[in-house]
Structures are given as structure tokens and as C-alpha cells.
Amino acid sequence: MSLGIGIYSIPEASRLIGVPGQNIRRWLFGYHYRKLPGDATTRTDMAPLWTPELADEDFDENVIGFRDLLELRFVQEFIRHGVSTRVIRRCLENAKTLFGVSHPMTLKRFQTDGKTIYAEALEEEALENSLVDLKSRQSVFKAIIKPSLYAGIVYDELGAKARKWYPDATGKGRSPVVIDPARQFGAPIIEDTGTPTNVLYSSYVAEGEDTGALTITARVYDVSSKLVSAAIRFEQSLEHPPH
Length: 243
What we know:
Blueprint: E1 8-9, H1 10-17, H2 21-29, E2 31-34, E3 43-46, E4 63-64, H3 66-80, H4 85-99, H5 110-128, H6 134-138, H7 141-144, H8 147-150, E5 153-155, E6 162-165, E7 177-179, E8 188-190, H9 197-206, H10 211-221, H11 225-239
Antiparallel strand pairs: 1-4, 2-3, 5-6, 7-8
């Protein structure tokens, strides 16, 4: 298996990015439906939106990689704004061809060129469906591809591949928590020490979730109290994501 890809089960991915597991499975592993209930002859198979990074590896369950994880956040935004999976599929196919990469939406270039790609996908759909309102549909692109989606993503020198992600990064600076596929299989960690945030949080909870628990956890794992607090905040944010 290639190193530096990251490994996430569907429940793990769902927890990290707030995308329902059912959606992840449908988008990355395909699904089918019947146009007429109970009639097997009307079965329609829907292919995955793209091939997951770890599709060729032998795991006991469906797993995805780091770039899959980031790309899914963008797909979720399109869906949330009412864009059909058909249009998203066309966007991805056109962007892959133009950019020459497997996961195009996470690229910063998609912030600009993606608007044209999205418009072209809508126009293709309009040729098949005269009810598509192109003007209003095109206007939502800016709301979908917002700067916050790219916040905290660090790219390689060519800007063609996401290397790591600071999931709770803000405009005030980087968070000490990082998701780096080259470390701890992509689990969230404290960047300075490599300690998984869930390990620190579990210790804090086991010790009673008070000031003493924080101090004990910091001492046991040789991590500063400030960094333990950052891990606690991050893990709690996953349990209670903002609406």
C-alpha cells in the first residue's frame, strides 16, 4: 500500500467532515435503484463519483484516503446548495481532464476555473432539461466554493496535491491539530508531538474531565496543557459540530 494516503473507515470519515456515512457510501462506492419498484429489469446502477484512493487495496470494509476525505467536503457543499449529482459528476469529469488530477475540487485553481466548469456542466444538463434555470443556478457557485472550504489545506510545491489539513484553522492562525496522511495514518494529531487527539481526549474523560484530568493527561503523554486543551476542543467539536 502506498504510504502517505491516510486510511479512514466510513464512520471515521463521517465524524471528521460531517458528511453522513450513507452519502459517502453512495458517492464513492456507487448504488442502484429501480425506476419501477420490484421490477428488476428497470434497475439502474450509479457509478461512484470517482474511484477512491484505496479502491485497489484489500480491506475488510470500505475505506477512503485523505484526498477523498477533503473532496467529499466540496461535494457536500454542492449537494447542500441543491446541485444534482449529475451536474457534480460532469464538473468532476471536466475538471479532471482540464487539471490532470484525480481530485480537482480541492485545488485552489478550482476556485476560479471551477466557475466555468460548473457553468458548462449546467449547460449540458440544460440541453437535456429545458426547465433548468441557468442564471440562478450559476449564481450559487460563489456560495458553494467559499474560502472557508480551503482554509487550513496545505498543498505541495506545485499546488496540485493537498498534503495536510488543519481542520479547525481560522484566519487568526493555524491550529495545533493537523490531519496529515503521512503521520498516524491520517488520524488527527497534535502536530508538534504526533499524539492523536482522540488519545488525549479519552485520557481526559477517563480522569474525570476537570482541571486535574487535564494536568494528569498532559503529564502522562508529555504534552503541554495548552495542547491537551486544543485536542479536547477539537474532539468535542466533532461530537457537537456547529449547525
